[in-house]
Amino acid sequence: MYLGSITSELVIGMGRDVKKNTRKVNRSSEGTNNAPYAKNDELNVTIDAIGSEGEGIAHVDGYTLFIKDALIGDEALVKVIKTKKSYGYARMEQILKPSPYRVEPRCGVARQCGGCQLQHLDYKEQLRYKENKVKECFKRIGHFGDEIDAVTEPIIGMEEPYYYRNKAQFPVGKSKEGKVITGFYASRSHAIIDTPHCYIQAEINDKLLEIVKVFLGEEGIEPYNEETQTGLVRHILTRVGFVTGEIMVCLVLNGKKLPNHEKLVKQLENIEGMTSICININTENTNVILGQTCKTIWGQDYITDYIGDIKYQISPLSFYQVNPVQTKKLYETALEYADLSGNEVVWDLYCGIGTISLFLAKNAKQVYGVEIVPQAIEDAKNNAKINDITNAEFFVGAAEEVMPEKYKQGADSMSADVIVVDPPRKGCDEALLSTIVEMKPERVVYVSCAPATLARDCRYLCDNGYEVRRIRAVDQFGHSVHVETVVLLEQKTR
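Above: the chain sequence. Below: its structure as tokens.
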């Protein structure tokens, strides 16, 4: 049975025994909803697990409390803020004894900002948490057994988990004093946390943002206000080529032009590496950051960068992995799992701008890439051209529609020896998984940013003739709860 959407809360124990939780110390009232505790009750607890979103978890006499900013091993005084029958939420009031894995965050606003959920956790323990998160998803959501432990390889961590992001999207707003601010949204809100320096973004962003903020202030250009839907500048998008050093600055506007943009261009163009300055038009009442129309006001429409020896052109709308150093390791793992000899036909589904496709093409007979975004396919075709790769062909459309259609049309010539999938967080459509099973590739390499839907989809494939051979997580997003994973599935041997 296909499991559909994923709603399960995961509890990740990180494989250690910890001290038993203590009872509450301050009982203010009887519980509601048949819960043993009520709002504002204060408890002494020991955190014995971490949830899928990085929150600490305490079990008190069989009752589960989720506690933001708590770490496994912390002993803390917490205050209950919300209760359900079998679980509730609490706020950290005081750390009575810190976890041995707790460290001081480099960033002064790490707790308020929604960008880094785990900066207070020792990096080695972050890696252990993420590897266990993947295993737990396979066991609890995919209903696999302990055999998963045997096929899980050590997570690939970062040598330096700071300043690794090549893309940033900074919301623009105003402080209470009327000053233009940029930063990131607080967790689960659209309140902007003013962030003068971000420890996971490219360091050049500090200079870029300061120039733009001063320009907006001097010109009296108002930031966008979500509540009133007034104001002009919504976000500042930056991209930095880590290999080439090329820089893009793109202002997302609630309008069609930026007043006196020549003044801004004059200030930005002298920065070393500046390659593209543009605006993006987004006049919709939406949480989607980018609109569909971009206009270049200086330089090129794109920047270039490399992953390995493959060159890519990257526009404001291009999907391109944000951590180029780890992306190379991720793609090398996918290529290793694909085990290509040069004679295989490979399908790369959800191919984006052809990042994985072009990696595969150098070792395959033929690669077919599928992506629903037309501009991405144009970029993929162009990226193949600038790399002199002639054995990669790309199709526009939903993977679950295009691949079955092309397979039926081409039959043997478009059959797959290996299928690579790299879907969005929601995972693969069941129709696509069904077609994969029908095409019977020898190997399926599944690249995923969401362990829950990965485990669900692997369960479907394993119920239909495949088995999981190898699993490896790659830390693309240090100090966050997110993790990329590569899985090799092969046809079952009989």
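Confidence is low (pLDDT under 50) at residues 15-31.
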